[in-house]
Write a structure and sequence with these properties.
192 residues; alpha+beta; NADH Oxidase; 4-stranded antiparallel β-sheet; 6 helices; globular; binds flavin mononucleotide
Length: 192
């Protein structure tokens, strides 16, 4: 498939099959992330891949602990793939995905957040090419902002000056793969 076609077909998936993704595929997705565009060519972001369903589930609960729905009243994300905004019965911010990548970036760097999300988007496209579904999830800082979270980061060897910026859920889509919403008009212009 041509790249533009892939970009148009990829969707955020929030319903996953039980099946785990192969280790080689997780490695490729992480490798893609390390090649993402990054501020100043500094290659500052770091990725931790988790291929352990129970751990992903625990982190998914932490991701929801400080989720404040009240600020999002009136928002709607997806009918086919409801998000935690749409469906209050969803308990894990990672939607039961069997694997997860956590993108870390330097706390005190101006482009810390853009670097992390460029990295995440690049991983999404590699995952799509491999037939693996994904979703970017935010609230990463809050997910580890407690004693148990900090302890886990120490165990994983995450440097003190690094902070989790976002997640990429990974797995196989359960049910029909959704189509893109129609694009809003007047979002671009070419000046010659
Ligand atoms: C910065 C950013 C943060 C996001 N955070 C979440 C999130 O916390 N939870 C979630 O389910 N989806 C999250 N998403 C995925 C978006 O909801 C999704 O990309 C959007 O609805 C468009 O759908 P599509 O990716 O299928 O085109 C995030 C996406 C971006 C770019």
């Amino acid at each position: 498939m041509k790249l533009l076609e892939q970009i148009k077909k990829r969707r955020s998936i929030r319903k996953y099959q039980d099946r785990q993704i192969p280790l080689e595929d997780l490695e490729k997705i992480i490798e893609a992330g390390t090649y993402a565009s990054n501020a100043g060519g500094g290659q500052r972001s770091m990725i931790i891949g988790i291929r352990n369903r129970e751990l992903v589930e625990r982190l998914g609960m932490w991701n929801m602990m400080r989720f404040d729905r009240s600020r999002l009243i009136g928002s709607y994300v997806s009918k086919e793939q409801p998000s935690v905004i749409d469906d209050q019965t969803i308990k894990s911010g990672f939607y039961g995905a069997p694997s997860l990548c956590i993108v870390f970036a330097q706390k005190d760097f101006l482009f810390s957040i853009p670097d992390a999300f460029c990295c995440a988007q690049t991983m999404l496209m590699e995952a799509f090419d491999l037939g693996i579904s994904s979703c970017i999830v935010s609230r990463a800082e809050e997910t580890f902002d407690h004693e148990a979270g900090a302890k886990l980061l120490r165990e994983w060897g995450v440097p003190e000056n690094y902070i989790a910026r976002c997640f990429v859920t990974l797995g196989y889509c359960e049910g029909e793969y959704p189509k893109a919403k129609p694009r809003k008009e007047n979002r671009s212009k070419i000046i010659e």
